Amino acid sequence: MLKKITFNYIQISCSIIFGFIIGYFIFSDDRSVIEKKPLKKGTICLVIDDYGFIFNDMVRNFIELNSNFTVAIIPSSPYAKIISDYADSLNNEIIIHMPMESYELENTNYEIELHEKLNADLVEQKIKMAFEEIPMAIGLNNHQGSKSMENLQLMKNLARSLKKRDKFFLDSYTNPASKGYITMRQFGVPTQLRQVFLDHVEDINKIKYNLDSLINLSHDMDIAVGIAHVKPMTLQVLKTEIPKLEKEGYEFIRLSKAVK
Ligand SMILES: [Zn+2]
Fold first, then answer.
1. pLDDT averaged over every residue in the chain
2. 184/67 same-domain check
């Protein structure tokens, strides 16, 4: 009788212990038991500029590539509206890529453009037009603008118009004398500074080299910010390199999370 009770006791105890072991593997939150997550190596923010003049498979593939990449659209460009709708449907962040006056002569005339001769009212009017055309845009960065960006008065007027709308600003940093970043900080507009352009030269090796520079910067900075453009060669590089980098432990974050 005593033997039977002891045997049952041992049997029940074993069942409970076995149950705990099985339960641990099934319900454990510790994912390392199942898969090992790589340690975070660096945080990167990537913005893709110059959307608006074409809308084809290449553009669609770019937008579909990674929903953390920001879509920067030139206002009053032919496909601004359709591209912003497409990017929005895929939950990408959208910003206005505002044409600004440059020292270099550009052949394109933009309906919505900022230059140093505009007073505060006219700057406000252009900004209003841009955000009315692309209402889902949550911020703005400059297209070109080597001349405009060093004009303090223009930057102050821009900062006021952005602050009023609760929008952020990315200084594309097309001129080392740019007053964009510092003015936005003074006016309390969340901002960031571009560190690397990936594809000013259309050459696969050069783009890879620039991407490496951005990655290396991310080792020393909280967030490394890069700008690339809607170009087939850039798409080709990003399509192969970004998934590899993510697997290695690099994190790509949205611009709204990078501005301060
Ligand atoms: Zn641009």
1. 90
2. yes
Whether 118 and 246 share a structural domain: yes
**Ligand 1 centroid from CA 97, angstroms:** 7
Task: Report the separation in Å between the CA atom of 11 and the middle of ligand 1, taken as the mean of its atom positions.
Answer: 73
For the stretch 94-111, pLDDT in tens is 999 999 999 987 677 899
Please give the tally of structural domains in the chain.
2
Residue 229's CB is within 10 A of a number of other CB atoms, namely: 19
> Using an 8 Å Cβ cutoff, are 224 and 45 in contact?
yes
Q: Is 59 helix (H, G, I), strand (E, B) or coil?
A: helix
Domain identity same for 26 and 83: no
**Confidence class of residue 16 from pLDDT cuts 50, 70 and 90?**
low
Tell me which DSSP letter residue 189 carries: -
Domain assignment of residue 202, given as a range? 42-258
Q: How far is the CA of 197 from the centre of ligand 1 (A)?
A: 11
In angstroms, what is the span from residue 222 Cα to ligand 1's centroid? 25
Instruction: Give the predicted TM-score (pTM) of the model.
Output: 0.85
